[in-house]
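Course exercise 7: structure representation. Students receive a sequence record and must write out the corresponding structure in token form. The form below is the worked example handed out in class, using Elongation factor Tu (85 residues). Read each field label carefully; the graders check that inputs and outputs are placed in the correct fields and that the protein name is recorded exactly as given.

STUDENT ID: A-19
EXERCISE PROTEIN: Elongation factor Tu
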Amino acid sequence: DKGLAEVKDFSSIDSAPEEKERGITINTAHIEYETENRHYAHVDCPGHADYVKNMVTGAAQMDGAILVVAATDGPMPQTREHILL
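STUDENT ANSWER:
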């Protein structure tokens, strides 16, 4: 047993009814797991300015990031800001 992480569908992470209805993130979601070589943390944060400061503080410890852009909407004005962070 390698202690592999449980697979979670996006709908189980972004689970607040209002978030699903509006297609936005209101509450943060945080999932962590480890492999033999690394510790991973996936965080879904609202794009609101109050959350960005905290996200930057936590991001200082990261070795990498994944930026997800909706194919239906494409890059939004805040996408460039998130890349720079």
